[in-house]
Amino acid sequence: MADEIQHKDNRMKDDQLLQRIVIDPKVMAGKPVIRGTRLTVDYILNLLAHGSTGRDICGEYKDLTEEDIQACLLFATRALADTDFLPLAG
After folding, report:
1. Which of 22, 35, 36, 81 is the most exposed place for a label (fewest CB within 10 A)?
2. CATH number (domain holding residue 52)
3. Whole-model pTM?
4. Distance CA 69, CA 2 (A)
C-alpha cells in the first residue's frame, strides 16, 4: 500500500515537472523549451554535461528554478525511455 502511494506521488510530481516543458512550433523551431523562456532542454542538458550545476544555471538565468532543471532531466529521460541503441562499430 505504501509503495502504491509513493508511486502515485512520484507520478503526480513528474506530471507537474513535465508541465514546465513546452513544445510550440513558433518557439525555437518547435524544440522543447522551459515554459516562458527560449531556453531549450538540449541547451540546459549541454550546460549540465559540461560541468555547470543547477545552481550555476539558475544563477545565470534568474527566472529559472531548480525544478526547471529537474524538468529538463525528466523530459530527456522520458524521451529516451523507449529508444533502442545499437552498439557503435569500433
Report:
1. 81
2. 1.10.10.10
3. 0.81
4. 28
